[in-house]
Amino acid sequence: MPTLRRSTRARKPSTKGNDPEPELEEEETTPTITPKKKRGRPRKSAPVEKPVEVESQDEAAEPDDEAEDPTVQEEDISEASGGEGAGSDDEAEPDEDNAGDYEDGDVMQSDDELDESVVESDASENAGARRKKKPTKMSMVDSNAIEPYPFSKKTTRAYEGPFKRQRKTPHILQYMYGPEEAHIKLAYSMLNRFYHLETLPGRPLDESSGPMRTPWVPDGFEAFQQAAWGAWIERYRNDAGIEQRQRCVKLSKAGMEPYLVKPEGNLVVLLGPYGEQTEATFPGGANRAICLNETSLPIDGNTRGEVNQPKGWIFDAGGLVLSLAWAPRVDKVDQVLALCVVPHSDQRHPNTAERDAHKGSRKHGIIKFWKFTAKKTKLEDMVPKAEPPILLRTLMFDWGRARRIKWCPVPPTDESLLGLLGVLTGDGKVRVLEIENVKPKERSTFSKVENPMFTLSIPDEHGVEATAFAWVNTNRIVVGYTDGSLALWSLYPLMLLSRHPVHTTYVVDIASGYPSRPYLIASSPVSGFPALVDFSCPTHESTGFTRTTITTQANLLQWNDPLQGFVSCYPSGSVTETSVGFMHHRYFPHVRRVADSPSLLTCLASGYTHPFLLTGLKDGSVWACNAAKKIFATRQDRPLKLKVFEHEFRPADRFDGPGSVEAAAEDKFRDVRGAVRILEGWDEEPNVWRIDRRRATRKGAKAKKGKASKKKKKNSKAEEDEEDEDGDPMDVDDDEQSSAGEDNGDGDEDGGPVPKDTRALINHEPFTRIMVMEWNPNLECGCWAAIAAASGLVRVMDLAVDEE
After folding, report:
1. What is the distance between the terminal CA atoms of the chain, rounded to a whole angstrom?
2. Rounded-to-integer distance, Cα 281 and Cα 506, Å
3. What span, in angstroms and rounded, lies between the C-alpha atoms of 422 and 336?
4. Given pLDDT bands bounded at 50, 70 and 90, which one contains residue 421?
5. Of 164, 193, 550, 599, which residue has the fewest beta carbons closer than 10 angstroms?
C-alpha cells in the first residue's frame, strides 16, 4: 500500500465500524463559494462512503479484512472530501496521473479550498443524494455489454483471420492444406502445375504438365475402388433373396413413339469465325452430328479451314437438356455422354385447360447415350477423332421426366457394362439403373425400363419428394428432399441409414467430396443457409454460411478435388447474384470470389483433373477461368477470363424483326423452328468485371462535372479497390453496400452511389441460355467439356491449349 502523506492540520475524530451518521452543523446561510483554480490538472473529488482513519501502530498490527485488500485501501485513500468527518481526504494520495506534479510532503490543498469542499459535500448530503464515484477510464469499459444491433443495411467490413488481404500465398496454403508438410508440398506442386495457365487447361508436354489424377488419395486408390465395385456387384447378382431386379424390354417404332422428343422443325446454325461463318442445318429428330475443326467450321466438305484437326462435335438433341454426365472409364478410347432431354413445350406456360392435357404426356421420360470416338497421342492423352458421334442407345420409362442424372464415380470392371446411373424422375424418387454396353457392330437400341435396379423413396411421408442427389461411393447415395432434409442411403442392402433436418426448405443442389472426402456433403436450399455436413459424424461435424441466401437455379454447386473445396454461385440474398465463389472444406463460411459474370448464372462446371472453371450464363455466353490462379493470385498478377463462345437463338417468326411472320411463311423456312448463331474468337480480359464497370462509370460522371482533381483521387481509389478485390471473404459486402442506394435510384452525377449495371437483369430469348455443362472426369480426356444450350444444341469441345 502506498505511504500516506500527513497534513499539519488537526483532524476531526471518527469512529470505527459502520458508517456513522453525519453530524449536522448549525444551519447557517452559507454563500456559494467558487473554488479557486489550481495550476496543472485539477484533482478529482468524489463522496466517501467510509471515512479513512490513520490507525496507530497497535491498531495497524491487528488483522483487518478491509486492510488486506490493497485495491480497497487505494480507493479509500484516493477519495476526495465529501461530508462531515471526511477531512482526512486531504491526506489521500493523488491520482496516478497527477502523482508526478507533487513532491513528498507538499500540501495538496489549502485551508480555504478544504473548507469549500466541506461546504459543498454537506449541502449534497442534506439534499439526500449521495454522490457516486466518478468512473475511471478502465471502469467505463463494460466487458459484458452487448453491442447494439446495426440497423443500417451497410454491414461493417471488418475481418480478422487467416484470409486477410495482406496474407500472402504461402500463408493461405498453410492454413488451407497444412499443417502437415507433405500436404503443403502437394498443394504447391498442384499450384505450380497450373498457375502459369490463364484461362484454359494446357495440353500435356510431359508427365509434369496437363491434367493429373487427384493428389489427395493414396496410390492405387482407383484400382482398389474398382475391385470393391466388382466384389459388390458379384454379391448382388448371386443373392437369390432379391425379389425384383432390373428389367428392360425393347420397343418397336410404334411403341417408342410416345416417348420420343419431337422437335418442332429443323434448326439452322451459323458456325465459324466472325465474318467467315457457314450455315449448317440439323434436321429435327434426325440425330445428326457434325465434326468441327479448330476454327469451329465443319470438317465435312470444308475447303477454307487451314487445319482439319478435329476439336469437337456439335449435334441437336431436339429439346431441353436438363442434365448430362460423362461415363467414368479407364483407358478407353470411346467416351459416352448421357443426356436427359425434355420437349421445349414443357417450359412453356399453358393455360389451365392445356395443363391437364399435357399432364399425361409428361409421365414419359427418356435418356440418350452418345458415343464419341477419340485417339491417343504420344503422351497417352486423348484427342477427338474425325468421326461423327453416334447415338448409342436410348432408355425410356413411365416415372415422369428425367430431371437429373449422375453416374457412379467408380468405373466398372465388367466390359459389358457402362456403369451405374442414378436418375431423379418426375415422381420424386431416385432410381439406380444398370446400363449395359452396346456391342461394336450393334445398332442403336431403344429400350423401356420396366423395373429399376434400386428405388430410393420414403413412402411413409406424404408429399416428401426427392429434389437432388449425389453419389458418395459405389454403395452410398445422399438424397435431398422437399422438406429440407438430407438422407444417406445404402443400395445393397437397400436401407435408409440416416436422415437429418439440415435445411427448412426445398433442397436445390447437393455435391459430394468424392474421391478424397466422399462423406463431406454440401447442399444449397431455395432459401436459407448453405450447409456442409460430414456424414461420418453428422451430429457434430457440420457448418454453414452465416448469411441467408436465395438459390433458384440448380447445377451451380460442384466439388473440385485438386483444390479441396466447393465451387458454387456466391451465397447471397439477391436473386441477381452473378459471382462464383470458392469454399474450402476447412473454411466453408469464408467464400473467396473466383469469377464475376455480366449476366445471370445458369450453370457451372469445375474440372475433375484440373482447377479450371466453366460458367454458363443467361445471355448464352460461356466463360472460362483458372480458379487456382484467381484464388492464390499475388498483387502483381492479374487473373484473366475468356469468353469461349456466345450462343444466340432466334425463333423463325423473328427472322426479319420482332413480330414478323413473313420469313417464316417462306418455303425456305417453312419447317424451321429457329436459327442459332455461335460466335467465337474473343480475347482474354481481366477477371475483375464489377470493379472495372464501377470505375468506368465513376470516370464518366466525373468527366461531366469537370472536376479534374477529384477525378484523379477517385481513379486511384478505384485502382486500389481493384487490387484489394481479390481474396477477401467479405468482398460481397462492398457490392451490397453500393447497391443499397443504387436500387433506389440515388445514383447521379453529384457524387452519389454509382448506378448499378443492369446487364444482369436483361431478359434474353428463352432458348438462348446455357442449360448445363460438364467436364470429362476421365484423366485421358480431362480437357473435354460438354455444353448444352436451351435451343437443343450440344457441343463437345476439346479445350486444351498448346503450352508455349
Report:
1. 78
2. 41
3. 15
4. very high
5. 164
pLDDT digits (tens, 9 = 90+) for 255-302: 898 899 988 889 999 999 888 899 999 998 778 899 999 888 898 654
The CA-CA-CA angle for residues 705, 707, 709, to 5°, reads 165
| pLDDT score, position 507 | 97
How confident is the model over 514-530, as pLDDT tens digits?
999 999 999 999 988 99
Strand duo 527-528 + 549-550: pairing: antiparallel
How far is it, in rounded angstroms, from Cα 494 to Cα 239? 13
Contact between 298 and 292 under an 8 Å Cβ cutoff? The reply is yes
- pLDDT value at residue 218: 93
pTM > 0.70: yes or no: yes
Q: Reduce the secondary structure of 244-265 to three states and give it as a string.
A: CCCEEEECCHHHHCCCCCCCCC
Comparing C-alpha atoms, which of 785, 457, 788 is closest to residue 612? Answer: 785
* Residue 624, phi then psi, degrees to nearest 5: -135, 145
3-state secondary structure 519-569: EEEEEEECEECCEEEECCCCCCCEEECCCCEECCCCCCEEEECCCCEEEEE
The C-alpha atoms of residue 297 and residue 270 are separated, in whole angstroms, by 9
Rounded Cα gap, residues 539 and 433, in angstroms: 32
Segment 399-421 shows an average pLDDT of 94
pLDDT at 23 over 50: no
| Residue 216 pLDDT level (bands cut at 50, 70, 90) | very high
- Which SS3 state, helix, strand or coil, does residue 420 take? strand
Distance of CA 256 to the CA centre of its chain: 42
R_g of the chain computed on alpha carbons? 38
Q: Which residues pair with 473 in a beta bridge?
A: 476
**Among all chains, which residue has been given the C-alpha cell 452418345?**
370
